[in-house]
Every structure is written in C-alpha cells, then in structure tokens.
Write a structure and sequence with these properties.
Blueprint: E1 3-6, E2 9-12, H1 21-28, E3 32-37, E4 43-44, E5 59-64, E6 67-76, E7 90-97, E8 111-117, E9 134-141, E10 147-153
The structure holds zinc ion.
C-alpha cells in the first residue's frame, strides 16, 4: 500500500498493519467499520488490540451505520499541526454511534473521534456544533485513493436535549 498525502502530511499504512489497514480499505468503499470482539461480541471504536470489556485479543471488522449523536466536542483555536493551521478554529467531535448505545453498562457507548465538516467538506461553523445534535458519516476522498471518514450534521431532529458551550 502506498504512502498517502493528506493536507501535506504523509500517511503510511503498511501491508501488514492490523490496526488501521482494514479501516481505510473499508473507507475507500465508503463503509465505516469498527472492531467487534470475537468472544463477547461487543463493538469498540478506539484503537488497540485488546477488548476493553473482556480483554480478548480476537476481533474482526464490523460495519456500522455511521449515524450517531455528538457526545462531546472541542473547538481547536490553535493547532501545532501545520496541516490544520488554515482550518483553525475548527471543531473536533466525539460521536456516539447509534449501535450499542448504553451497552454494556449505562453511560457506555460506541464512540469515535472525528472532524465535523460542512457540506463543502470544510470545518463546520462553531455556532452550529452542539452536544446532542445528530450526525452522519461522510467520506473525504483524496486524489490518490486515500479516503478519510469524517462526520457532518444530519437533518434528523435531536433525540434528547441539545447543549453547547456559551461563548
Ligand atoms: Zn470482548
């Protein structure tokens, strides 16, 4: 697999990578996948070889809907990463996917971190970002075959209270 360019950065995903290769192969086909534990069956969005619930090292990729709710967010005002300097200020969202919400314990959920983009694939305006707003996955296709799953606000009404930091 080649080295990709993303916003002037090199992204190298080797052929024997077990952590991200399948994720980006699915992304190229516009599918969002997470890890599913082969022992307890629970899904997880965070990187790492072991299941956080039962410590099993057995897992497989599992396709999810890409629909969810903003669980939390942060506005990046200054970035030390040169590739994102012209984006700042921009939002980063913690998305709770619809799958596995409240499991295995109340308060748990299947959560992913991503940029929140608008219809032009630019960072969403800060005033539109709020905890509780509904989002869906969107795929940012690079010219060299690299695709990055991101999220955008969806047209669905919120399912619960909406809250944002007062600025
Ligand atoms: Zn498990």
């Amino acid at each position: 697999m080649p080295v990709y360019e993303y916003r002037g950065q090199s992204i190298n995903i080797s052929e024997n990578d077990s952590e991200y290769l399948g994720y980006f192969e699915a992304a190229r086909e516009h599918r969002l996948v997470v890890k599913k534990c082969l022992d307890c069956g629970l899904l997880r969005g965070e990187p790492g070889p072991g299941c956080p619930w039962c410590t099993s090292l057995g897992w497989e990729w599992h396709e999810v809907s890409g629909k969810g709710t903003i669980y939390s967010y942060q506005i990046v005002a200054h970035t030390v990463v040169p590739a994102f300097r012209d984006w700042a200020p921009f939002p980063i969202v913690l998305v709770e996917l619809d799958e596995q919400s409240g499991q295995p314990n109340p308060g748990d959920g299947l959560r992913l971190t991503a940029n929140l983009l608008d219809g032009n694939m630019e960072p969403e305006n800060e005033e539109n970002v709020a905890i509780g707003r509904r989002v869906e996955v969107v795929y940012m296709d690079g010219e060299d075959g690299f695709t990055l799953p991101q999220f955008k606000l969806s047209n669905e009404p919120p399912r619960d209270q909406v809250w944002r930091y007062q600025t």
